[in-house]
Amino acid sequence: MKIPTKHLLAWYDENRILYPWRKTRQPYRIWLSEILLQQTRISVAKRFYEIILKRYPTLKDLSRAKESDFLSLWSGIGYYRRGYSMLSCARKIVKNHHGIFPSDLPALLELPGIGKYTAGAIRNIAFGILTPALDGNIQRVLSRMMLSQEKLEENFLSLGESAPASDFFQALMELGERICLPDPECSICPLRKDCKARKMGVQRDFPPKKIRKETRIFHWYLLILNSKGAAYYVRNRDRAFLKNVWIFPDVLLTEEKPEHTIIREFQHAWGIEIDAVTNHRVIRHTVTFRKIRVHILVPRSFHLNGSKGKWLNSIDLEKHPTSSITPKVLRTLQSSKDWEINRIKG
User: Which of 112, 87, 90, 107 is nearest to 99 (CA)?
Assistant: First the structure.
């Protein structure tokens, strides 16, 4: 075993965080954790990992799930495409692999929602097969170690060739998450004596920082229709995101518009006639490089003219996939002194 790898594994053995998915080698559970951790905070992923496993403890259980039931559990995570891919993946494994996760790399890459990184993570952790799987954290560690952004996969295999694949992979990942940060804490790094970037004094400037995408601002208008303790929800399959979730009738624009224009937009898009808005509140919502101004509109009165939606109370809503913005909007309205749920009549 190479000396820096030995130090890395000793550090990991003593300092690892015992997330629930680190207490298992079951491919189903490893796959679930990897999908959940994509673009999701660890605290959120941990909570939904436990919720999903309680409802669907095995891959076969998940493969038999009703789409609406599974996606209702997915509410609050975001990026619903992951949820759809998970169901498709589970069903394909049952159909083509007798319900057993394949360990072969080409077979994994043929499965819905599994790319090169996820396939590598599953092989490393669940099957103990050393496979390059380079997220941003691991790339940063390897780049600094070698003072090069070239041949990272080769360096991954070279450093880990005599180490347990699962521990080596997770140790590199955790080192990048906790110590080898963009502003690294080199004094406590187990690889500090072997890090070429540190020896050259360039660890804070290497690898070069990527130019961030310009933040775009959107104005998302949500129309809140209430009657007898229920709110009106629709699905917008023409929207570029959240196509299959149930949410308030909406209009998404790149610039703020006057009220009379928005009223016409809702009539054109949804067939909902509004005479005036009695409550217009704005909250902020951020998704990756998008800053969204969420305009919450409560009309004085409304008329549904052919709009296809559902009236859902809070219990009904739990059975439908929705967005994390939905409870945020409802909490905002319920704290508003000039809003009462039964004043709006259909």
Answer: 90
* Average pLDDT by stretches of 10, the chain with 346 residues: 83 95 96 92 92 96 91 76 91 96 96 96 98 96 95 95 95 96 96 95 91 80 88 84 84 90 90 85 73 89 83 86 84 65 39
* Alpha carbon separation from 110 to 97, 210, 276, 329, 341 (Å, rounded): 12, 31, 52, 39, 49
Give the integer Cα–Cα distance in Å for 180 and 173: 10
- The phi-psi region of residue 211 (left if phi > 0; otherwise alpha if psi is between -120 and 50; otherwise beta) is beta
How many residues are given for the chain?
346
Query: What secondary structure letter does DSSP report for 215?
Result: P
Residue at token pair 């439908």: 320
Retrieve residue 320's tokens: 């439908």
Q: Which CA distances in Å does 27 have to 85, 102, 117, 302, 322?
A: 16, 9, 15, 51, 28
Which two three-digit tokens encode residue 41?
Answer: 């905070």
Q: How confident is the model over 78-119, as pLDDT tens digits? A: 677 888 899 999 999 999 999 999 999 999 999 999 999 999
Contact 253, 218 (CB under 8 A): yes
DSSP 8-state code for residue 294: E
| 175: enclosing H helix or E strand | helix 165-178
Q: Order the strands of the 310-312 sheet from edge to edge.
A: 226-227, 230-233, 310-312
pLDDT at 289: 57
Stated pTM of the model: 0.76
Dist. CA 130–CA 38, nearest whole Å: 21
If residue 116 lies in a helix (H) or strand (E), which one and from where to where?
A: helix 116-127
What string of DSSP letters covers 76-88? TT--HHHHHHHHH
As annotated, the active-site residues are: 34
Q: Are 223 and 250 in contact (CB under 8 A)?
A: yes
Predicted confidence (pLDDT) per residue in 4-50, tens digit: 899 999 999 999 999 999 999 999 999 999 999 987 889 989 999 99
